[in-house]
Amino acid sequence: MTSRPPRLTVEAYERGIINGDLGTLARAVTLIESRSNEDRQIAHNLLQRLLPYTGRAHRIGITGVPGVGKSTFIDNLGMRLLNAGHRVAVLAIDPTSHISGGSILGDKTRMQRLSLDPRAFVRPSPSGLSPGGVARRTRETMLLCEAAGYDIVLVETVGVGQGETAVADMVDFFLVLVLPGSGDELQGIKKGVFELADMLVVNKADGVGERQARVALAELNAALRYLPRKRAIWQPRALAASGLMGKGLDELWAVIEEHRHLLTSTGELAALRATQQRTWLWTLIRERLEDAFRNHPGVAASLPHLEHAVETGTLTSSAAADKLLAIFRCQKC
């Protein structure tokens, strides 16, 4: 078994990240993802020191059903952005097996050009069985990338229709990729995901799929007229593109830049980021309260019996919750 490299000091992590050292950044992300209490404390101190260097990147979420071509799309888009002078980080949130706990970390092989380019940072992160497949420390990893000088951060979701809200709550622009095909795309994506989108892109609009993509695009444009706007100042757009061929990617990026300029000039970007920070604060509070609750000795001792009573129908869920909360509040229990 390969031994883990020794931890760096907080100062060494900070210095390496600010200088854009990829090795230090990768080690810092591993630190962020660790469940060790010692690692977490170092990570908290590091993030606090790096805060002045964060917040300047363009944060973009990309989702879509499996098979829609997200990785190929991101690979081509990312290379175009690199060649335009940007530094690009990709945080690819992978599905984690509910049986083995393992993660399918395949994005680096699918993003063949981007993952090999030294100007880019591609980090697949296992979801850790968190709700909706959202990696537990994606937000903190995004801050590390910003501090390291990456001005565009792309967050790729699992695309199973559960974690999109969480990702939309951490990015500036949310892009939904759709497969072309005779109206199936309208039924294959939940209305709630449509409502989160700042833009819908019918991908694979090339070859035999080009005609289907035009049909799908017309249907999406019609659907957008009936959906409530996420922001009063922005009407979500739809276009057809090909991640494989690069078709439509320049037009897509022009729309993303238009959106960025509009939100920045009106002050809505700052307001959006502030709201996201507040949401994340309460997410962390709930997470840590649940951890404290489950780790309470009295709760841990009583939980199996009370769960069994609820499962067998001899005790209501409400009564069991009251009992457990009473134990948790008891200072002598």
What's the SSE blueprint?
Elements: H1 10-18, H2 22-33, H3 37-50, E1 58-64, H4 70-83, E2 88-94, H5 107-110, E3 120-126, H6 138-147, E4 152-156, H7 164-168, E5 173-178, H8 184-188, H9 191-196, E6 199-202, H10 209-224, E7 237-240, H11 249-266, H12 268-295, H13 297-311, H14 317-329
Parallel strand pairs: 1-4, 1-5, 2-3, 2-4, 5-6, 6-7
Helix pairs in contact: 1-2, 1-3, 2-3, 2-6, 13-14
Task: Write up what this structure looks like.
This protein has 333 residues and is an alpha/beta fold. Helix content is 51%, strand content 12%. It has 14 helices and seven strands. It has helices at residues 10-18, 22-33, 37-50, 70-83, 107-110, 138-147, 164-168, 184-188, 191-196, 209-224, 249-266, 268-295, 297-311, 317-329; strands at 58-64, 88-94, 120-126, 152-156, 173-178, 199-202, 237-240. A seven-stranded parallel beta sheet has the order 3-2-4-1-5-6-7, sandwiched between helices. Strand 2 (88-94), helix 5 and strand 3 (120-126) form a beta-alpha-beta unit. Helix 1 packs across helix 3, helix 2 packs antiparallel against helix 6 (138-147) and helix 13 runs antiparallel to helix 14 (317-329). It is globular, with a radius of gyration of 22 Å. The chain starts with 9 loop residues before the first helix and ends with a helix. 36% of the residues are buried. Mean pLDDT is 85; it is low at 97-105.
